[in-house]
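Final report, closing paragraph on structural work. Over the funding period we assembled a curated collection of sequence-structure pairs, and we close with a single example.
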Amino acid sequence: MRKIPKIFHYFRTFLFCSCATINSGAAIAEKGPVGPKVGEAQSTYILGMWSSQGEQNNIKKAAENGGITKVSQVEYIDKSIFLGLVIKHTTRVYGK
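Its predicted structure, as stored:
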């Protein structure tokens, strides 16, 4: 039986692993408690250039999806899939 070099195992491990989160952040729009409603807008970027939803992933769209008229907090979540070639971007809005 032939031995497989260790470098191959390291490369294979690197190839089939991806980062769970590469960027997440939150912005507070007003002081006070987080609102009871939550709205989300999502899009997927391929190679960082093409988006599945165009420019529809923004705070306004997320607020519309959740029926929110007064935003209290905004959260951005980027999730890397398959070595960063595909990125799922989510904008989450909290408010009333």
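Residues 8 and 14 are 10 Å apart (CA to CA). The longest helix spans residues 6-15. We thank the funder for supporting this effort.
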